[in-house]
Amino acid sequence: MPQSYLLFVMGSLGLLALVVVGALRTAQLLRHWRPDRNLLLLPAENLLRGVLVLCAIGLGLLSGLPPERLGWRSLDLVGDILWGVGIGGFLAVVIYLGTQWAVRRWGDHLYDAFIVRNITPRSASEWPLLLGALLLAVTTEELLFRSLLLGGLSPPLPFWPLAFVLAICFGVVHLPQGRLAVAVTTLAGLLFAWLFLTRRSLWASLVAHYVANGLQLWISYRQQQETSIAMGEDGPCK
What we know:
By secondary structure, this protein is mainly α. The protein has helices spanning 3-29, 43-63, 67-70, 77-106, 114-117, 127-153, 159-173, 179-199, 202-234. The protein has one domain (3-237).
C-alpha cells in the first residue's frame, strides 16, 4: 500500500472522528445552551467547515486516486443534477411526512425541533446567506462521507457494508436533533450512498443532499410564518 494512500486513510478517519465527536459534544452542549442567532450563520462554525472542506480536498489529492474514484468528475453533469433534484425532493417529502407520523404515533420526545427552528431563516433577507452556509455544510459532509470514505475506501473494503457503517456515523452526526433524526438521516445516508454508486459521481448525492435540506428549511420557514400570522390575528381577540 503506497504511503500516500495510507496517510489519506488515516487523515480521512481522523476527520470522521473529529466530526462525530463534535456532534456528540454539540448534543451535550445544547442541553444547557440556547443560542440567540441562526446556528448556520455562526462565523466560527462556517470557518471550521471551510477548513474541513480544504482538508478533505487536500486528502483527496494526497490519496493519488483518480478523480472518478472520488466522484469529483462527472460524465453526465446535467443528469447528475436532475437525479439529485428528484431524489432530494422525494427525500424531503418522505422525511416531512415520516416525521409527522412518528411524532403523532410515539410523541415529540423522539425529535428535537430546536435545531431546525434555529437554522430556519427569520426573514426573507436571511435566505441568501443561509443557502450559502447550507451549501458549505452539505459539501463538508458529502466530501467526507461519500467521496473520501466511501469512494476512497471501497475497494479495498466492500461497498455496502462500508456504506452501512458510514450511514450510521452520518446519522450520529445529527444526534443533536434527537433519536428520530438519527434514524432518518441514517436511511438518507444509505440513499446518498446508492446515488453515489449509481451515478459514479459526488455531484448527484451533493445536489440531492442540498435540495432535501433546503426544502426542509423552506417547509419550516413557511410553518413559522403561518404560526406568526395566526398568533397576530388571534392576539387582538384575546
